[in-house]
Design brief:
CATH topology of the largest domain in chain A: Aspartate Aminotransferase, domain 2
Strand content of chain A: 15-25%
Distance between the termini of chain A: 35 Å
Strand order of the largest sheet of chain A: 2-10-9-8-5-3-4
CATH superfamily of the largest domain in chain A: Type I PLP-dependent aspartate aminotransferase-like (Major domain)
Shape of chain A: globular
Number of strands of chain A: 14
Radius of gyration of chain A: 21 Å
Oligomer: homotetramer
Number of domains of chain A: 2
Largest sheet of chain A: 7 strands, mixed
CATH architecture of the largest domain in chain A: 3-Layer(aba) Sandwich
Largest interface: A-B, 59 and 59 residues
Helix content of chain A: 40-55%
Chain lengths: 396, 396, 396, 396
């Protein structure tokens, strides 16, 4: 491969220099006397990213899957009832995990392209007079279909019904990139990973846990050790960890949090919205369809593009990857071969998105898809420049 | 801190350039079509490091603790009987974990400085006529006390008695640095981590699992997902992973395995033995005592040095760390303040060991310990040059 | 600046990972006994890049300017007559330097956008019956205007006339990127730099010097030391340098030469031609003009785009740089404000060129230039995909 | 080579992480509109390192040799008389260069191990009633013999005699590491390089030039271009350079200057003195001799160790390099085979010096030199700990 292969998958993302450098250091002793001086402010600042003031943030070597397991393993016990919905690869896998952990799963199996069914959730929770439902699960941003669900709406339902269920949210591909509010939305456990909005390499699970969820840990009779919140909390209070932490990734996370804070979370979200808008304009110009069913479900971090029935989306992905230096995301599970995904999250600017869209156009043409070359990029360029009319001609 | 702070803790270690560089790359799509071309040979070559031909190697974001949990969570069920021994921080924590997972733990609680009690193990296994003991646990190299135990001896006992128990070994600070033989010793689950013999950053758990252990998974009724061997095996067979892998660390692991193979495992072990011998000579010259009780227990990857009762070992560690640029290991648990530890594993040569010993001497003098300056370093230099008489005067 | 700022200037270029890593190493002793084992093959392989078998390649800390000075300082003496032509910033500066060094300069001052005037050169050389012209200078690729001149044609003239003048060529922005043939074209001194076709950081001057030019050194009475070819040759023969070399850059150069060799020089040139063709198609689609006057002068490494009189090209460059993450080249000297330059050399692929073109379109629109958004990118995409019809659908 | 090879040569040095990282960035456009915002403060802060308030600092791709040539090429004309002294490889080469440039050289050829002969300089300058001597040259720190000369003393002589000669100083291995005062000592041109006190890779020449020297440029009739101070000054005033600068090295230089400023120049000098004292104690303990003749000549950045006549110093260097991971400096010119050099400058602490001394001891023993192993290291440790009695037991 000549030239950079740009990452247009929905995580991992294009790593900023500052983060790469923060991790490109000698290894360090995680039991050193001054290690807590690094750990404690990091944990504290992470809470700002989750927009939480109470509760705790945990981080440990892991993936989003580890985070899902930590949520249900720490706070629930076998046979506890959970309310769930599946409408894509990742929302679905979490539900499967609940079943494997012998939870009593009440699931709504939705079409892919839909999001969390608020009406159905409301009705089921209303019916749950005895509060047998211990936790409500929601995938904030389904990475497989590019669908963002309304977490504030779920909180509203729980509040309306005065239902005490815990609210568990998969925020792997949302936190740090699109609006997420732990406290305001009353989220009890939020799962995130290093390789999405945090712009880091894979390998670190980052979780927000409310005080209410911490209290629930005491009632769980599921044995846990590696993922145990209580062990983590005890060690974190001293600035250490119950076992060897992924210190190098944590050095990168420090840089990541600094960058998010410097740009300002609201600016980060606005930038993602602006760039996503250009991507959607491009998809429209190509005459293709967004997998997300309705505009209010459109994700600002990933767009799943549905190709025409005569085309194999994997050919497009293969051509982009092998011939044109762009790594697009494949369709997963049910939509394999039917969609390709454009990730647009992390350390991105307009020109980088155009590179991804241009790579997609090259691949579409390579595969014989009929559209006007440049039309998608042109549509995005129009959106991008319209959105930046506020900027001076050429000032710093 | 002016100048490099050298790591003389028993992991993480001084990372080789080649490994640092292998990880200092753009992030990549772990679902890319050519990712299996990277994964499959790596898994295969790792088996050579474990010295196993059958069975499997797994790797996932985690620490040694995750590996311990994976061993007992995958292969055992609550109330299964396990034979264990504790004689240091890490051997002890694994036993505690067994208890938390509701295993029926038969533990020998040994003095710190001792190793796995082979005679006691033999007697207990002999008494276990009905083979209620499902697994025997052993810490190959107790990092807290610098004690290496005789795993081949345990296998001999099991074979002598024709006992079918699984053999689980904590090889976190041994594998890749001192002699370890998965197949020959009949180890069923071996736990290792990225930050010791593999010379990588922390964050990756690497495990060897025998076919016998894989079969045991089917009989376990402990629910698991993140650490599930069967899920891993299914995905690994395709060259992928059941969830987002720590791809960057795996790129480093590729470099690590290449380096171990290029030097040759036997040469790696011989080098560790040679360097450890110099460290022990230095400790003797200082008039201090090795925490490991007997020469046959001396670890070639870490030496725990017992200080005189009037000295606080943490002062020595603090002086070395804060004033002289050397990071020594502290005493853990029972021996806190009583020992300091010199790690001597990984990408090390004679001059690097001398730096660590020199740093220890500076710190010892700084703290008023009475000994002849240079005596420890001198003793090591004598050993080191005697050991290299075979080398030509100055040839490449 | 959020996101990568892509370099679309005609050098420095987008540095490949392999080169960055090759230089991201500990410093080394350039007097070490094994240093020649690194130096000698590098010098030898560089000759292949220059396509020379006799003569020598030199490298030293410097810029192209140092190379120009080395050419005239080593091989000529004050008052020697030289035949030159100026048609851009860089060709012009070299002529100025000749004057400062008290050479007897016969210069043709051409319009910017033209190249070396072969007819005029022929006539002047024909008139030089007494061979008073000691050297003919030519700028192979004028970086300021994107003009490539015909060096083979100059050699033809010299051969036709049996004229013994030395042929000095500025190949700073051509060598390693577009066709250059030291031996076949009878070039006596060729000047190159690290930051163009060699894809390295700035700071290293790389020169090809023919045996005939080496002989000319003996006749020069210009004192020299830092740039002295004879001193360099003597030290290089031992694998060392007459003074401290830029060893880190040379480590990068090793990686660069390896990459050029692996891709194959002819493939490198073909790729540059293919990408340049797309850029020129985009310029046409925008309705703008190439600064190079005729197609045969079009450079495959840089395109200078002439903007309409009502537009300040620096506004476009400023908008691209400040708002859209793309670094375009500015107009130099006479064409300042009238052109912007798109560099398309080095470690580039189609998607990277599209990013640069997209950045230019964003900036053009931002500055109110009237054109159809996406038209330039689309034109390039059409050329790029047509040029790759030979590629399989998606194979590696 | 297993393990790090530590650099104990007198430049290049052990590069700090912060500097390595500052240079491990994407390439940048040195004509970018915001480049002057980086350049101007750097030039200004460099003046603080040279301890000058008037005059200028220049930097360009080059070595110390380029700096020597720039000094005499810019400020002098052929046949100008210069007063010089040679007492080692580098002082000698500068004198040779003066001869090659047709200067009228009045040189004192001293024994190696001596420094600038102040008495002889005084007598010669006193005799120069007509001020025919245009410049006095002095090598501040002769890297080949480890001799530091008294520059303040030369200034005193010039002032006493009211002699208008320019004072040119080779500060390559002194500036940034041992006391140097451009203004106070009335130095007119000071030559430094990136790879010594500035702790950078090789390849950048850094010069301090007084206003008096800048004025002298106008009177020189030596043609120059690449090394022309006037061209540099004109471009620098705009924040740019007359030709492509070594931008990557300059990014590193920014980090270097920041580090020197943060530690404080006086602390930097004191640290070098402290570490050098330990090295000299070690040499004494080995029973070997310092090449520098008298204590007041002892360099704090490099010690040349004279071996016994029966020993070939190159064997010691070879053994240290090939077998024990330590790169010692060789004897140059007249003292080849008779001395080995220990560099002790740059980003160094006590433990790093001990590593170098330990490496030397390993090599000495390997070569059969008779001394007590550990004696040198022990002597250094005693000095080092005595010098740090002020430090608290273990505070940060």
């Amino acid at each position: 491969m000549i030239g950079y292969r740009t990452l247009a998958v929905p995580g991992p993302t294009n790593m900023p220099f500052a983060i790469r450098q923060a991790m490109d250091v000698a290894l360090e002793d995680h039991r050193a006397p001054d290690f807590p001086e690094f750990v404690k402010p990091l944990l504290s600042d992470l809470k700002a990213v989750f927009r939480m003031t109470s509760g705790r943030v945990f981080m440990f070597p892991g993936s989003g899957t580890a985070g899902w397991e930590a949520a249900i393993g720490n706070c629930l016990s076998p046979r506890d009832m959970v309310l769930t919905s599946s409408f894509g690869q990742f929302s679905g896998l979490w539900v499967e995990m609940c079943r494997r952990f012998n939870l009593d799963v009440k699931n709504f199996d939705m079409d892919w392209g839909e999001g969390v069914p608020l009406d159905l959730y409301r009705r089921r929770l209303e019916a749950d007079k005895h509060h047998r439902i211990k936790a409500v699960l929601a995938c904030h941003n389904e990475t497989a279909t590019g669908v963002t669900s309304d977490i504030a709406g779920i909180r509203q339902i729980l509040d309306d019904l005065d239902h005490p269920a815990l609210l568990f949210v998969d925020g792997v591909s949302s936190i740090g990139a699109i609006d997420f509010r732990m406290d305001e939305w009353g989220v009890d456990v939020a799962v995130s990973g290093s390789q999405k909005g945090f712009m880091l390499p894979t390998g670190l699970c980052i979780m927000g846990v409310s005080d209410k969820a911490m209290e629930a840990c005491a009632r769980s009779d599921h044995p846990s050790c590696y993922l145990d919140f209580t062990d983590m909390a005890t060690a974190n209070d001293q600035g250490y960890f119950p076992y060897t932490p992924a210190a190098t990734l944590m050095r990168g996370l420090r840089a990541s949090v600094d960058m998010l804070m410097e740009e300002g979370l609201d600016n980060v979200f606005a930038r993602h919205a602006r760039l996503a808008d250009g991507v959607r304009a491009a998809v429209g110009a190509w005459g293709l369809r967004n997998c997300a069913r309705r505009p209010e479900l459109h994700s600002d971090t990933v767009t799943a593009v549905v190709v025409d029935p005569g085309t194999n989306a994997n050919d497009i992905i293969g051509a982009a990857y092998n011939h044109y230096g762009v790594s697009l995301g494949g369709g997963l599970g049910k939509v394999a071969g039917k969609v390709f995904r454009i990730g647009h999250l992390g350390w991105l600017n307009e020109a980088m998105v155009i590179q991804a869209l241009g790579g997609a156009e090259l691949a579409l043409r390579h595969c014989g898809v009929n559209f006007e070359a440049g039309s998608g990029v042109g549509a995005a360029i129009e959106r991008f420049t319209e959105a930046r009319l506020d900027l001076p001609l050429a000032a710093e």
